[in-house]
Amino acid sequence: MGVDLAVTLGSVRLNNPVMLASGCCGYGMDMEPHLDLNRLGGVCLKGLSMAGSEGNKPPRIWETQGGMLNAIGLQNIGVSRFLAEKAPKLRTYGTAFVANFYGHTVDQYMEAARALGEEPALAALEMNISCPNIQEGGIQFGTDPASVYKVTKACRGATKKPLWVKLSPNAADVAATAKAAQDAGADALTCINTMPAMAIDVERREFRISNKVGGLSGPALKPIAVRIVYQVAKAVTIPVVGIGGVATAADALEFILAGAKAVQVGTALFVDPQCPYAILRGIEDYCARHGFPSVESLVGQVKDGAPMPKCHE
Amino acid sequence: MGVRPYTVLHNERRGPYCTLTVGGEVEPSEPGQFYMVRGDWGADPLLPRPLSILGEDPAAGTLSFLLKVVGRGSSLLFELEPGHKVTALGPLGRPFPMPPAPGGPPVALVGGGVGVPPLVFLARRLAAERIPYAFLQGARTKDDLLLVEDLAALGTPPLCTTEDGSAGAKGLVTAPLAVALDAGLGAVYACGPEGMLKAVAGMCAGRVPSHLSLEARMGCGYGVCLGCVVPISRGGARVYERVCQEGPVFDGEAVLWE
Q: Do A273 and B229 lie within an 8 Å CB cutoff?
């Protein structure tokens, strides 16, 4: 008998647990020449703001050991242009589209949530409170539980769509920010965004990217992300979506065993836009080989034994 | 289109340069387009490298690139031996617009350093279509002049300049370009260091169209990461455009040199 790949995150049902990460697949259709979106569980679209943004000055990216730094600065066309030009084309697909959004103030977050919440092509909204690369907003909302609660509560009241909150790895206590988001009414948590990081060209004594700080992504980020998914899944009852360096089925399985119901693939798409196919096939093979009838039955199934030492909780 | 596997057929090295030829399934491409190329070396370095196409033969299933060692990724590509596996995604990007049919004024191809390969591909197409062109190549020294014999074999030997005077005229490639512009050109195609491109754009502005192939650090190569943008003037507004998608070839008058 085949493995049941479908996973349910609150009221959102995904055909399978493999999603594309926001910022790594444009507005969905941009992947079309390379990838059949209907074979994916879901697609998180490029982060949107009400006003749109031209993004940061180049250079915006730098490759580091086993990863990369980026400071794109959330370049985007804005919510209204997205709704007018892009969203209608998304309505015909059989995959779950999730609109990632952000603001510089709580009101801007609410406005974006309200406007995007009316769009039938969207299965859920993913609130970005963890971007390391914009001057105001983003990460400053994501590192303190009280402000996570405030902005999540505000957006919760602004839309009936399922509301996912994308958390920062840069909080002193990620479990506390996770609980704050849950208490404020989040339907799921995406863990994690990139880690604020830096690289310097020593010969020129210059920063490698114009923003100085960029977000670290790719395989180098994965062990941090797996740890946070595990801690957050223990701390909350709402579903967790794992992200951070997923490039292979084994990577995805680590996240699922740690407690993620789905995973998002980001930087690995730059190496191979079709890697989600192999990841999905590998998850299915693993479930069959280990006698798990479904992906759902595998979630959080790492052999847990003794609790983590207190100092790491 | 996904990433395709290729096998290294030859890798001819000269100084810090190598001409890498790979075999596999090859989709027809146009001069100015590029591939994202990566060897089979695990997660580090992570990203594929953008390489402009030097030549292709879809029927024979071969592709060639010329690159210079600059960092870790290019060193690993330089060290590839016949039989090694690489993966590549492409052809990608907007190619050079071909000049109108023969009969018009000649065009000039201006190349500097590793900007030369896509122009050699273009020269091959122009020669096949009997469109007259001048090939102007600038380099630091004679050891940095590239593919001179290949170009001569097409029937139009390149006019070379070197900064140290070790081959061709001493000086910059902009000197012979000024002469060619005065004699009358239909268009200028250029690829090379930013300083050269900026000078070419300035010399052509208001006189002839210039088509510049720009370089940038790339993440994905196919338009989704927004890592490779450059400032461009579009309809009077300053916008960031992607070198991998709206480029790599841009109208010289639209590029904003900041």
A: no
Spatial separation of the C-alpha atoms in residues A246 and A251, rounded to whole Å: 5
Asked if this assembly's ipTM is beyond 0.90, the reply is: yes
Q: Is the pTM of this model over 0.90?
A: yes
A292-295 LR contacts (CB < 8 Å, sep 24+): A292/A3, A293/A1, A293/A3, A293/A4, A294/A3, A294/A4, A294/A5, A294/A6, A295/A3, A295/A4, A295/A5, A295/A6, A295/A7, A295/A16, A295/A17, A295/A256, A295/A261
Cis peptide before A309 (omega within 30 of 0): no
* Measured CA angle at B232 (ends B70, B51), to 5 deg: 30
Q: What type of residue is A193?
A: N
Q: Which residues of A touch B241 (CB under 8 A)?
A: none
Q: In this structure, what token pair is assigned to residue A204?
A: 């020129």
Q: Round to whole Å and give the CA distance between B172 and B256.
A: 22
Is the Cβ–Cβ distance between B160 and B167 less than 8 Å? yes
Give the count of domains, chain B: 3
Does A81 contact chain B (CB < 8 Å)? no
In a domain, B100, yes or no: no
CB–CB contact B47 A66 (8 Å): no
Say what percent of chain B tops pLDDT 70: 100
Domain that holds residue B35: 2-92
> Where residue A81 sits, what CATH number does that domain have?
3.20.20.70
